[in-house]
Every structure is written in structure tokens, then in C-alpha cells.
Amino acid sequence: VRCSAGLSVIDYSGSYCRRTPVDVDLPCVDCDKNIFVRLRYDDTLQESEECCVQAAALYTSPDGTRRIRVHTLSLPCTSVLGNVFRGADLEINVKHRLVETCQMLPVKPPAQIKEHITSRCVDTLYAYRKFCATNSSSGQLILPEALKLLPLYTLALNKAMGLRMEPEIDERVAWMHDCLSLNVDSSMDTVYGQLMRVDDVLLESDSAAADGAVPDVPRKPSPLSLTSEGIDATGIYLFANGRDLLCYVGKRADPSLVHDLFGTDDPDTLCGNGPRLWTLMEFDSVHSKQFTSIVLHTRTERCKHMRLRLLRHGSREETLRFFDSLIEDRSTAGMSYVEYLCHVHRQIQNKFV
Q1: N or C: where does the chain have the smaller number of CB atoms within 10 Å of the terminal CB?
Q2: Dihedral (CA of 60, 62, 63, 69) sign
Q3: What pTM was computed for the model?
Q4: In whole angstroms, what is the distance from residue 187 CA to residue 200 CA?
Q5: Confidence category of residue 243, pLDDT binned at 50, 70, 90
Q6: Where are the alpha helices (DSSP H) in 263-336?
Q7: How far apart are CA 275 and CA 278, in angstroms?
Q8: What is the mean pLDDT of the chain?
Q9: CA 43, CA 306: separation in Å to the nearest integer?
């Protein structure tokens, strides 16, 4: 990566081999590969001009031809910090901090990493509050529009599997390896998964059947906030975290629907002593076919075959993988979202003292 006068490359982050300080080696390149490059201001940039960043990839085509592909990005310069915040990309910020977390894990304890992640969030919001929202009340937490969910994703990263104390070392290393190579969309699922209630969607087909039309493909379930307030004991939920697709069946879920989906009245019997990988089976019922359609669509959206796991009630995995993944609740992994917002706000106010 090269850049125009006034800028320079400090370092690279990502999953790759680096044999020289300036080159990055990859065995193959596809649309999901991403590498972060940190730039530094070396000189004053003129607001009337544009700065350029250029990435060049030297590769061998399938027929053995050596080629070079060049991408050049031209960006306007501004002296107004508010313009920078308006153009900020939340997903890229989250992905970069995820990669940064993975790089620090082998050399720093999780507690220090969590403190560093929160400090980065506080510094960003403090800069916005100090230079872009000077007329606002000091007792109010001011968030830039483009980064208004930054505290939520920062909290989610603090509660990530790799920073908890419960997982085995093998599971933590596997999490690190996956996060370094994930694309941006998959990284967002890893940090803040998607929770969906599927029983409501499936039971809609009963109403449609009364009208003589049963859709083979149900509507897509609406995503829910990651809080236990949205969990009902009568519901059936799917939780996609980028790696696994967890199926949680409420204790008081509709027995006939449970039998249609799992072929048994007690799904716990399918789990054994824990949430083993569960092979999706399609039974001869409309509900089963629609449930299969939802699972396949969820996997297709993410371009990967997420492992389907059925959680057993009262198991350790039910707490570790599901309820501790409800980021906005207070848990053994950390404070609630409301508590975390108050904590970030206090840290920002302390900087003004």
C-alpha cells in the first residue's frame, strides 16, 4: 500500500504472512479477504486538494500468468473534524478493533484488553464531544450519528467469547483464528449476533392454511435486541453468531409445533449431555419445511454453513453460548448496556476535569 505526500503507512493488521516490512503475502485472494492499513499524518494536507491511497497486488493467474492489479482511492481533505465523524464507518471501526483484540490476546490478559477497548471508545466520543458538540449540556452523552452504536458494539466486544474466562484455551484460539480472517459482515455477526423468534412466523402458516394458501417460504423473522426481555418461555429462537446457529426451545413452547420440527415432544432427548451438533431433518409437515427454509436462508445470507446446535435446558452451554450472548443484559461477562453507557459517560466527563 502506498499513499500520497503528507501520509505514510505505519503498519498492517490481518491474517497473512509477512516476510518483509512493506509486503504482505497471501496464499490466495478472494472477495472475503481484508487487511487493515494504519496511516499517519506526516505533513499538513491542503484542504483544496485530495490525498490518494493505492493498493497493488502482484499475483499469479490460474493459467500461470504473472499480473498486477492496482486500486487507487482519492479522498477529499478537510479541516473540519465534524466531516470526519459524519463519514465514519461503524462496521470498519468494529472490525478493526476486533482484529486489534485478537493481536493483543497472546500478550495481554483479557482484563487489560477490555480496558483498552473501552478507552478507545471513550477517546473517540470525547473528541466528538469536545470539538464537534461544544454547545451541548455537559451532563448529556452526545454520540455522533454515524457512530451512535459504537458503545453497544464495544460492550459486545468486551463480552466476546475470546475475552471471557469460561472457554477452554483451544476454543479461544479458534475464535482468534476465525476473527482474523472474517470479512466485515461476518465480523459484525461475531461481535453482535442476530437473534430471531421463529415460532411466530411458523404459526402464521396456520392462519394462511385457513385461507387455503400455505407459503412454502415463510417471511424472514425480524431480528430482536440481544436482551432477555425479548425471550419468552413459549418461543422457539434461532441465534446466529457467525460460527454457530443455536436453536433455543422455550420450556413452554407449543408441543405440536415442537413435534413437527424435531420429531419428538422433548427436544432435550436429542441433545444428550450437551448441545451436540444437530443434523437438520425435514419431516412431512408444513412447519418443518418452513423451518428448514429459514435455516437454509440464514446460512445462505452469510455465505457459510453455520453449525446447527440444539441447546438443552439447564446445561452449561445454555448459559455460556446463549444467555451470556444476550449482550444488553448484565451477566458474568460484564455489565448491562445501560450500565455501560453510564460508565462511558463518566469516563468522558472525567476527561473534562
Answers
A1: C
A2: negative
A3: 0.87
A4: 28
A5: confident
A6: 286-301, 316-317
A7: 8
A8: 86
A9: 47
Cell numbers at 173, concatenated? 484460539
Query: Measured between alpha carbons, how far is 299 from 293 in angstroms, rounded to an integer?
Result: 10
Round to the nearest angstrom and report the end-to-end CA distance of the chain. 41
Whole-Å CA distances, 167 to 22, 63, 160, 170, 327: 36, 45, 11, 8, 17
Report the C-alpha gap between 198 and 236 in whole angstroms. Answer: 6
The percentage of the chain sitting over the pLDDT mark of 70, rounded to a whole number, equals 92
- Closest Cα partner for 239 from 170, 192, 206, 297? 192
Contacts of 341 (CB under 8 A, 6+ apart): 141, 151
Q: Which three cell numbers stand for residue 184?
A: 466485515
Determine contact, residues 151/341, Cβ cutoff 8 Å: yes
The cell numbers describing 125, all together, are: 466520543
Confidence category of residue 211, pLDDT binned at 50, 70, 90: low
**C-alpha to C-alpha distance for 143 and 199, rounded to whole angstroms:** 36
| Cβ(147)–Cβ(93) below 8 Å | yes
At position 115, the amino acid (one-letter code) is: E
Tens of pLDDT, residue by residue over 39-88, are: 998 888 888 889 999 999 999 988 999 999 999 999 999 889 999 999 99
Q: What is the DSSP letter of 282?
A: -
Cβ 195 vs Cβ 230: under 8 Å: yes
Distance CA 347, CA 104 (A): 23
